[in-house]
Amino acid sequence: MGKAITAILIGAGNRGMDVYGNYAIKYPEKLKFVAVAEPIKFRKEKFAHLHNIPKNRTFNSWEEILAEHKLADVAFICTQDQMHVEPTLDALDKGYNVLLEKPMAHTLEGCIKIIQKVKETNKILGISHVLRYTNFFSTIKDTILKGDLGDIINISHRENISWYHIAHSFVRGNWRNVELSSPMILQKCCHDLDLLFWIIGAKSRKISSFGGLKHFIPSNAPNGSPNFCVEGCPIEKTCLYYAPRIYIDIVPIIQILEKSNQLGFKILANLRKKHVRLLTALSKLVKILQRLRYWREWPVEPIYSGIPEEISEDYSDETKMRILKTSPYGRCVYKCDNNVVDHQVVNIEFENNVTASLIMHGFSEREGRTLRIDGTKATLVGKFSDSGQEITLFDHFSGKKHKIFSQKLTINNSGHGGGDFALVDAFLGTLLQNESQPLTNAHDSLESHLMAFAANESRLQGKVVNMDDYRKLE
Ligand SMILES: NC(=O)c1ccc[n+]([C@@H]2O[C@H](COP(=O)([O-])OP(=O)(O)OC[C@H]3O[C@@H](n4cnc5c(N)ncnc54)[C@H](O)[C@@H]3O)[C@@H](O)[C@H]2O)c1
Question: Is 439:426 a contact under the CB 8 Å cutoff?
Answer without folding.
Answer: yes
